[in-house]
Write a structure and sequence with these properties.
InterPro entries: IPNS-like_sf. With 76 residues, the protein is mainly alpha-helical. The chain is built from two helices and two strands, in the order E-E-H-H. The chain has a two-stranded antiparallel sheet.
C-alpha cells in the first residue's frame, strides 16, 4: 500500500491490433442462453469511426453496429 511518502509514477499502455483484425466474441461464450449481442467488426474501421465520426457525440458501439446491420446480415 502506498503511504504517500514517495513519488509514484504510472505509465498508460494501450494496444492497437494490426489493421484487418476482426473483433468477435469467442464461440465458447455464445450459446442458446447467451446469444451474441454484437456482430463481428474490423477494429480499424471501428477505431476510425469513433475517432473521426459523429460517434464522439453518441454511443459508438450501438451506432456502428446499427449502420452495419444491413451489410452484415447475410454474413453471419
Amino acid at each position: 500500500m502506498m503511504s504517500g511518502d514517495k513519488d509514484r509514477y504510472s505509465i498508460a499502455a494501450f494496444i492497437i491490433p494490426n489493421e484487418g483484425t476482426i473483433i468477435k466474441t469467442p464461440k465458447e461464450f455464445i450459446d442458446d442462453q447467451h446469444p451474441r449481442l454484437f456482430k463481428d467488426f474490423d477494429f480499424m474501421d471501428f477505431f476510425l469511426f469513433t475517432f473521426f465520426g459523429l460517434a464522439k457525440l453518441i454511443n459508438s458501439v450501438v451506432i456502428y453496429n446499427s449502420t452495419r446491420l444491413l451489410k452484415l446480415e447475410n454474413k453471419i
